[in-house]
């Protein structure tokens, strides 16, 4: 028994003395201060010393990368094959193709470090611009557009790629004439114009405003009882631009132009919109004029006005024809070539150009627009015989052909029908001797 007591006494004497709670708190604070001072010194060495900046934590960013991720146009549009260089592809903003990558989120809390300001103020600006362009591209409205004057929508009748298919344009829900009721100018200064998209970029169906039908809806052109499609002339796919027309303009077939020595083609003035977004049939775009080419098509003057959507990212940089070559190199040459050869696969000869194919500047183009607007004025007021052109409208006050909207015959309600299947031969490529690849 005494030996047991001695053992317990010895064990008690050997046990360590525990510190009080106040001592523990003091030791913990001292260790924490030492750790913070050490971490602060380490960070200073990492910034001012030889350690690379890449070791610093990076914020999550969306940064451009060299490998390409194609952002496709909105549903319902076509994209060109990727096996050949499209004329627009020299400019990422012009093509609507973007590439980006996302740096993964780091496995630490952002609050555990201080990010240098020069890092937070650079890459996010680039990525936000790209993100905004992509969002704008993917969210482009598929059936309506807004101008400063009104909202225009489309009313579709029958399925695309059928003889019965029509696209009417409506203003505030009332059908109007695509030829006569939409104002040519979108602002009082007459520097911004309204354009009607007939054929979206990269498509083949030859759609156009019907001159003969009531309210001039957009329909597919017919030749020998069959729907017309333009052929793919290598390296092009369909139309190179959003192709359409200026409302309230007319190329008078009774007047021979003094410089082209050819009469007008009896159509609204043709327009090639070169912006990055793919349009849709019946869309009313606000554009500014950059230049004009004079195609001589079957001994008729067929003007092609080059324009850009005022909402395009490049619009502020494109103000005249020389700016197009500077920012979209090769596009004017490709445009000239396309109009020259596009009928050859159908057994027709090359088209010819006035001015040796030169694209005239903005001033000349605006003169052409005004001449065609004056010709339309004579047509709509009855000073020029309309021939087979339907001049019925619902808004031109001084026109003898104006009627009230209540007098319009019934037009079927909007029909969102799937397009009819087209022959696979429409996708065939034609290789034209003498065409530049």
From TrEMBL:
EC code: 3.6.1.1
Cofactor needs: Mg(2+)
Record key words, sorted: Cytoplasm, Hydrolase, Magnesium, Metal-binding
A Pfam family: Pyrophosphatase
CDD domains hit by this protein: pyrophosphatase (cd00412)
InterPro entries linked: Pyrophosphatase, Pyrophosphatase_sf
Compartments in which it is found: Cytoplasm
Biased composition (Pro residues): 72-84
Leading EC class: hydrolase
One example GO MF annotation: inorganic diphosphate phosphatase activity
GO cellular component terms given for this protein: cytoplasm
Superkingdom of the source species: Eukaryota
Swiss-Prot/TrEMBL GO biological process terms: phosphate-containing compound metabolic process
Segments of this protein annotated with the region Disordered: 20-102
Stretches with biased composition (Low complexity): 86-102
Reaction catalysis annotation: diphosphate + H2O = 2 phosphate + H(+)
Similarity-based family: Belongs to the PPase family.
Protein name: Inorganic pyrophosphatase
Species per Swiss-Prot/TrEMBL record: Gnomoniopsis smithogilvyi
Gene: IPP1
